[in-house]
Amino acid sequence: MPNMDKTLSIAFDRLRFPLAILVIYLHIDHIPTHDLIAATNFTGTQGLELYYRIVYSVCLIANCAVPCFFFMSGYLIVNNLTEFSWQSYYKKISNRFFTLFIPYIIWNILAGLYIWFVVGTRFNITSIFIDPINFPLWFLRNLIVLDLLLPLWWVMNKYFKSFGLILVSAVYLFYTHIPYINNYAATALFYFYFGIYCNRRFINIGHIPKASKYLIAIIAIGTYIAQIIWWQYNLYYIHKLFLVAGVMTILIMSYRYSAIKGELKYPLLASAAFFIYASHKVGPTAFAKLPLNYILPDNPYSSIIIFLVAPLLTAGICLTIYRIAKKYSPRFLMILSGR
Predict the structure, then answer these.
(1) Is the dihedral of CA 278, 282, 287, 292 positive or negative?
(2) I need a labelling partner for 276 at 20 to 30 A (CA). Which of 32, 139, 285, 338 fits?
(3) Could you say which DSSP state residue 136 is in?
(4) Nearest by Cα to 68 from 177, 175, 191, 190
């Protein structure tokens, strides 16, 4: 495999910070489910329907964030790997012990201590290793497992070729019929393997034919609008199609923008993305919402403001902590950030 396209590398880095903010939007409030929407009488409370529609519309886009991270992770783990060998596998896994596993454990312990002191709930070994008490870290947990299974993905891609992608696509679409597979596992598997597939098949996001790019964007926009119009219905397959097209559109747009703008203007934002992702539920989210809840009256219109503003304040708090840690405790920050 030749060296990675520099523009694609910049595009990946450029996405890290905005994707981390989108993840915060998913965790700043409860996402209205289809059942809740269908059962809610919007005539009773003024502004409630507007609040639900805004939250639902933003979170549809935000749902593309974690799949993007899995795609990039899959693409990168096989980058510059011409042939599989146990030596190269050991090297990659050893590296990810420090970049994934150690931060995963530390951030779960920090989250457990935070909940213990704030809520009074104690944590256990299971909530550190298996069922992360710092909920967003399910991404790291699944990524660790997927990385460990790299030999399997390599064999599938080499010998099964496109059938391997069809197989994981089937798991992604029909996971409800497969024992021990949930939405998190199916999503992680599909986008991670999709990234591997694109890398090994020399599919460069930036070099996709223009007509295909437009078609992907049209599908993303069309399925997005359809979900907003019929938001009270569970358009399961439409949503799955939207996520795939949405992820591809985000990657294509980032590549295009990076090809024009070149190197990152603010590399600190990209380097802080993992820290923001891992830390936002360990205090910053609550601290960002606290003054807004105190100042604003308790009604749906205030909830809209809190939903839109609090994630940005949360990211600002995380970024401030990151910069302070970088100045006064850079070595510990490197461990927290998986470096």
Answers:
(1) positive
(2) 32
(3) G
(4) 191
Q: How far is CA 320 from the centre of its chain?
A: 22
Per-residue model confidence (pLDDT) at position 180: 85
Instruction: Classify residue 180 as exposed, middle or buried by CB count within 10 Å of its CB (0-12, 13-18, 19+).
Output: exposed
C-alpha 293/C-alpha 36 separation (Å) is: 23
What pLDDT, on the 0 to 100 scale, is given for residue 3? 58
For position 243, what pLDDT does the model report?
Answer: 97
Residue 203 in contact with residue 213, Cβ under 8 Å?
Answer: no
Q: Which residues of the chain have pLDDT under 50?
A: 1-2
* Predicted pLDDT of residue 225: 97
Find the helix packing angle between 65-77 and 183-200, rounded to 10°.
Answer: 40
Distance CA(193)–CA(249), nearest Å, equals 18
Enumerate residues 6+ apart whose C-beta is below 8 A from 117. none
With contact defined as beta carbons under 8 Å apart, do 251 and 315 qualify?
A: no
Q: What is the pLDDT of residue 31?
A: 83
Which residue in 283, 276, 331 sits closest to 69, CA to CA?
Answer: 276
- C-alpha 261/C-alpha 282 separation (Å) is 34
The size of the chain, in residues, is 339
Owner of token pair 């070729």: 161
Q: Residue 161 in 3-state DSSP?
A: coil
The two tokens of residue 331 are 């070595």
List all residues 6 or more positions away from 141 whose beta carbon is below 8 Å from its beta carbon. Answer: 104, 130, 132
